[in-house]
Amino acid sequence: MKNRRPVTWRDQASITVRRKGRQVLRVSRKTFRYALVLCGAAGVALLSLAFARLAEMALEWNARWTQAAPWAALFVIPAAMAGLRWLTMKVAPLARGSGIPQVIAATSLPAPLAASGLVSLMQALWKIPLTALALLAGASVGREGPSVQVGAAAMLGWGRWWQERFGVRLRFRTSELIAAGAAGGLAAAFNTPLAGVVFAIEELGRSAEVRWNRLALSGVLASGFIALAIAGDNPYFHVAAKAGFAQGSWGWTLASGILNGALGGLFATMLLRGARGLAPARWRDWIDGHPIRVAAIAGVVVAVLGLLTGGATYGTGYAQTAALLNGQPIESAWFGIAKWLASVVSYVCGIPGGIFTPSLAIGAGIGDHIVQLAGPNADGRTLALVSMAAFLAAATQAPITASVVVMEMTRSQDLTFHLLMATLVASWVSRQFCPRPFYHAMALRFYQDATPSAGSRRGSQM
Fold it and tell me: Contact 44/151 with Cβ under 8 angstroms?
């Protein structure tokens, strides 16, 4: 047996230096990956803020022209919605509708297929001006769902650019990168970082393909906090005084959950059926062959509803919701039902635009209807707030997300328990009308469209 040379202090020092070097290299790589994710989150936040500003301008211009010439809506809105449908079919067919179903479907696709289709950066970038034009025209759509698709496309594009251009791998599954960008887009759109995380876990996390880690969740929070740093720590809805529960309001709160659950379940069912499914059987072939004319007819319906409500149903419904949350009356006594109809018609015609903010407006309007029945026994501001969360939960069947979104955007933490009660009831009632959650049912359709030969469901790492 050979004699071994004793280990000297120089040998020990050399071993220590090599070990420390490997540790520093590992830390440097992890820090670099973290920096890249934060840069991607910053890009998502900036895109969401720019989109928000463009949408606000579109809403302001819509209010001006509809007030200056209200009857012109009967001609402008049908023509605009028909034009938007044609343009969507030509340049961005996968940008139609909300954007959240596309993201959910993309988490189950391989990276190249997702990046060239459902969360293509070009498709997502088209969605920004198309949604803004829909708001300018007066369609009852929102920008938050589109912000989710834009955020997912931006984050995936960022990761693929580093990999293809410099050979840098972020060590993320494609589904994780898409989900982080999507949730970051929602967090930045609403100025609600916590809601972005909850949305990621409850809504996007239902997919078996999504596995969360600290770095991905950090990207979601970073998008929200960067948006807060730039836009200011301002709630999405400015509530002048805190709402409170009057004595005996619990019964009306429960009624709000039940009523919003039923209407939200029917809302989701009608969106899933689409224009073809809602029409008599003998008209369905004509609807399939004339999508642009269908959009024009939908525009006529939207314009008529707007005229009957003094323009209250145009756009997102933000102004009317803010008024109800502050106890101020709105012009139309049937705003909630009219907004419900306008949102269904705007969505099923196939133009880009989400249902998130319109759902909040519908819920606030339904809360106002309940107040008309309850009289002085219930606080109108509280029922508007609770109904907002309840209808959103019913439409999406994501009660925790709905509760946290409404709580965070109105700074109503003291009513969190009441929001949870109403959203859980509404979500349960909604399932009796629409057994499968709307976003996931639509995602299955997009997935089938994107994978005609079914392909691999597993995403690659980036």
Answer: yes
β-sheet bridge partners, residue 424: none
What distance in Å separates the CA atoms of residue 440 and residue 436, rounded to the nearest whole number? 7
CB atoms within 10 A of CB 310: 15
Alpha helices in 290-437 (DSSP H): 291-308, 318-325, 335-348, 356-374, 380-396, 399-410, 416-433
Report residue 192: phi and psi, to 5°: -135, 85
Distance from C-alpha of 443 to C-alpha of 108, rounded to nearest angstrom: 10
Helix/strand number for the chain, H first, E second: 19, 0
Pick the CATH number of 249-449 from 3.40.50.10490, 1.10.3080.10, 1.50.10.20, 3.30.70.380: 1.10.3080.10
Question: Distance between CA 280 and CA 124 in Å, rounded?
Answer: 34
Q: Which of 405, 409, 369 is nearest to 263 (CA)?
A: 369
Q: How far apart are CA 230 and CA 11, in angstroms?
A: 53
Look-up: residue for tokens 């020990």? 12
**Quick one: pLDDT at residue 170?**
63
pLDDT score, position 138 = 94
Residues 6+ apart with CB under 8 A from 416: 403, 407
The structure tokens listed for 136 are 């300018």
Q: What does the pLDDT look like over 185-236, one tens digit per residue?
A: 888 888 888 888 888 877 776 664 555 666 677 778 788 888 878 877 778 8
Nearest-angstrom CA–CA distance, 454 and 210: 19
Amino acid making up residue 57: M
**Do 146 and 98 touch, CB atoms closer than 8 A?**
yes
For domain 35-231, give the CATH number.
Answer: 1.10.3080.10
Helix (H) or strand (E) holding 187: helix 174-190
C-alpha 441/C-alpha 443 separation (Å) is 5
Conformation bin of residue 436: beta by default, left when phi > 0, alpha when psi is -120 to 50: beta
Where do the structural domains in the chain lie, given as residue ranges?
Answer: 35-231, 249-449
